[in-house]
Amino acid sequence: MLMDILGILIGFASIMLLFSLLVTAIVHGIQTFFSLRLKNLKKVLVTFLKQVDYLEESQLNALIADMDRRAPDQLFATAFPLKLSINKVKLSSIGLDEFKHIINNCKGLTLEEREQLCLKVEYYFSTLESIMRQRFTQWMHQLSIITAFVLCFLFQVNCFQLLSDLNNDSYYRKQLNLTAQQLLRQPIPKVADQYHGHEQPVIPTQLMSLNFEVQPEHWQDYYAKWNAQTLLNWLGLVFSTILISLGAPFWYNRLKDVMSWRDRLTPK
C-alpha cells in the first residue's frame, strides 16, 4: 500500500517536472525573442533619467543610443548573419563604470551636469539594479503562470484526473517510474536563462509517450455545459497551473526526495 502511494507521488511529480521544464523552455524562448532583459534595462534607466531636470529629450535619446551601440553592428545573435535589427547582438546589462563613461561622452551636457549626473547614478545604481532584478523576476513569474495555464488547457492537464489515473493504472505508474529515473539522470536548471537547449526536444516526445496530446479528442465538451464536472475540470486545470508554475527545480527536488524514500523503504 505504501509503495503504491509512493509510486503515485513519483508519477505525479514526474509529470509536473516535465511540464515545468516545457514551461521553462517556452518562457526562456519568449524572453530571448522579445529581448525582455534589454527592455527591462532600458525602461528602468529611462524612467530614472527622466527625473533629471536638466536632461533634455535629445540628450536622453543620445544616452540610450550610446548604450545600444556598445555591441558592434557586425555581430549577430544567430549562426546566419541575417541583416535584421532583431537579429543583432544587444547587451542586456550595463555596469556602473560603463554607464558613467557613456554619460561623460554625452554631447550637449556641460562638465558640471555630467559630474552631477554621474554622482546621482553612482548613488542610486545599486537600487536601480535591485529594481531591474525584481521587475524581471516578476515578468518571468507572470509569463510562467500564463504559459503553464495555456499548456494545461491545451493538454488538458487536470491534476485530479492525473491522480485518479495513477491510482487505477499500475502500468502507467511503472511507465512514469522509468521516466522519473531518466529525468533524475539529467541536470536541472536553477533559472530560466540557464536552461540547456539540447533537452528541449526530448520533453514533447516524453509527453506524447505518456498519452499527453494537444487538444485531446472531445476536450471542448468539458466546457460546453456548466455543471459540476465542468467546474471540477476548471479547478483541476487551475491547480495544475499553480503546481507547474512552482518551477522545475522544485519538482526535481521533490521527485528526488520521493525516489529516495522509496529506495529506503524497499526491502532488500
How would you describe what is shown here?
- The protein has 268 residues and is mainly alpha-helical.
- It folds into two domains: 155 residues, no CATH class; 97 residues.
- The two termini are 17 Å apart.
- About 4% of the residues have low confidence.
Order of secondary-structure elements: HHHHHHHHHH
Helix segment tally? 10
Share of helical residues:
55-70%
Number of strands: 0
Radius of gyration: 25 Å
Overall shape: elongated
Query: Cα distance, first to last residue?
Result: 17 Å
Number of domains: 2
Brief rundown of the structure:
The chain crosses the membrane at residues 6-34, 143-163, 231-252. This protein has 268 residues and is mostly helical.
Q: Secondary-structure blueprint of this entry?
A:
Blueprint: H1 2-33, H2 36-49, H3 57-68, H4 96-104, H5 111-155, H6 159-168, H7 170-184, H8 202-209, H9 228-244, H10 248-265
Helix pairs in contact: 1-5, 1-6, 1-7, 1-8, 1-10, 2-5, 4-5, 5-9
